[in-house]
C-alpha cells in the first residue's frame, strides 16, 4: 500500500502557491504538503509525508506548538498567525507565520514566510533599543549637564575672582559674591543696571588716567597692569581685570563677561617689599645696598665729578644705648636721620649703613664744599637736643670724607671714608676729616685695613698659634692654670704679637672670627691635655654675637671638655660697652660651669661700680699698678684696696705684669691669690706648656 493510499487527504491542486500549505492528521502526522512547504523543509514531499509536524519544527517552536497551538485547536478549532520556526536545511531556520484549522478529523495549515517580518521586527527592536539607549544616554547627559551646571554655579559662587556678565547693551545680567565684595554693592542693586555703575576706573599710575568701561567691544581685553577701581563709597581697590565677549551658537555677540581679581593686598605687599629692599626699616633712609647702587651709577655717569662719600658716626652712641636702653637708641637714630634729611641738599643721597653709622653721597662736591657740608651736618646734630623720658641728651657725630672716583672701587672709597671718620673720633669727635694722603692717622688706619684680608687668610690657613702663660698661685696648689695668648705666623714665617693685628681686628670687627678660632683650637688642645686649666680672652664683639655662645657650646660638646676647666676673661670696657650682651653670655656659660675673670681691673674710672653688675669670679689687677707696686705707694694702696674689696665680694685676685721677685713678694704680702708675668713664667707654645710652670699651681676659683 502507498503512502497516498494510507492518507486521508488527496494531493493539493495548486503547487504554485507562494505560501506553504500542509495537511496533518489529528495526531499531527503529515498527510500532504505543497512544493513551497517542501522547499522550506529542504526535502522532497514524499520524505516529509508521514512525519509528525512537531518533528519539522525547531526545538523552541515544538514547545510553542505543543503548549499553544494544539490546545487552541482542541478548544476553538483554529489558531491564527502563530510564529514558528521550521527546521530546514542543517543549521538553518525558516521563520513562518502559521494559521491552522481543524476540519473533518484533519488539520489544514497555511504558512507564510516570515523572514521579512522577522527582519523588520529585529530592526524595530534594534531601533527601539537604540532609541531607549539614546534616551537613557540623553537622560544621563542631561543629569551630567545639570550636575556640571550646579558645579560651575557653585564654583562661580565660591571663587575669589569677581565675575560679572552683561547683555549686549552693557547692562549687568549676573555677578558672583566675589564681585559683590569687590564693588561693595549687592547684585540685587546692580543686575539690570549699566556696568559703569560698578564704579570709576583709572590707571594705577602717578598721576592716574581715567579709563572707560567698554562691554560692547568685540574682542577680549586684558589689563597689562592693575587698574584702580574707585567704588561708590570712596574705597580704592587695585584690580587685575579682563573682559571678553559672549557669543551665541551662531557667533553673534550677546554680551560680555568681566573678570576681576582684587590684588590690592598683594600689590601693597609687593610695594612694601620693594621699599624695604632699598630702605632701612628703622629710619626710612636708604640702606647700604641702595646707596652703593646709586653711588656707582653716579660715578659711571659723572666720573671724577661724581662727588664725595661721607661716612658719619654718632659719637658715644654705645654708651647712650647701654645707659638708656635700646628703645632710646632707636629713637636717637630716627632723630639723627631726620636731622640729616633736613640738612642735606635734594641731590645728596643718605643711607644708614649699620648700627649708628650713616653714609652720604655729596653729589658734585669737591673737597672744600664737602668739608663745609659735613661740618654743617655735625653742627646740626650738635645743636639738636635729644629728648628721652623728660631728659635732654647732647648729641655729636664725627664724619670722614673720601672722593668718589672711577679709579677706586666703591668698597675702597667707603672703607677710606670710614677710616677718616675713625680718625675724626680719635681727634675728639664732633668734626669732619678728609682722607688726605698726608694725614698720618688716616694712613695708619688705611694700613690696618689690609689686615682684614690677612686675618681671614691666617684663619683659613691655620697660621694663628696658641701660646700658654702660667698663672702662678701664691696661696695654695692645685691643677696648673694659664692664660691662652695668641700669635700669628705671617706669610714669611715670622711670628707676630697680638699688637700687630688685634687693633685692626677690633676696628674692622674681625674679633668674632679670631675668638671662635681660639675657642675651637683651645678646646681641642684641652681634650688632649686633661691635667691643665686655662683662661680664654673674649672680646666684646664676640659676646655681643648671639651665635658665639652656641659655637662655644658646640665645641664643648664635640670635644667633651668640662667647662669648669675654663675661665673666660672680659675687659671692663668690652663688658660695659654692651652690658646686656655680657650678662647674657656670662649667665649662659656659668650655667655650664665656666668661670669668669674681669681683666685689666682698675683702669676704668668706674671699675668698682662694675662689680655690682658683673657676676665674675676673678679680678685681674691691671699691670700698670702691679709694675710700680714696690716703688709707688699709691699703686700699692690701689692694689691693696682692690684685694680687700675682692675679698669682701668673694672674688679671687691675680696680679698682672709681675716682672721680679720683689713684686711677687709684695703681692704675696698683700694677699693677692695669684701672679702672672714674665717674672713667674713666660708665654710658650701650648705644646710646651709644662716648660713654663714652676713646681706649684692652683686653680682660680671664687673663694
From TrEMBL:
CDD domains: EAL, GGDEF, PAS. Residues 305-437 form the GGDEF domain. Residues 148-192 form the PAS domain. Signal peptide: none annotated. PROSITE patterns: EAL, GGDEF, PAC, PAS. Keywords: Coiled coil. It comes from the Bacteria. InterPro entries: Biofilm_reg_signaling, EAL_dom, EAL_sf, GGDEF_dom, Nucleotide_cyclase, PAS, PAS-assoc_C, PAS-like_dom_sf. Gene3D superfamilies: 3.30.70.270, EAL domain (3.20.20.450), PAS domain (3.30.450.20). SUPFAM superfamilies: EAL domain-like (SSF141868), Nucleotide cyclase (SSF55073), PYP-like sensor domain (PAS domain) (SSF55785). Residues 448-697 form the EAL domain. Residues 223-275 form the PAC domain. Residues 199-219 are annotated as: Disordered. Residues 117-148 form a coiled coil. The keyword Transferase does not apply. This is EAL domain-containing protein. It comes from Piscinibacter koreensis.
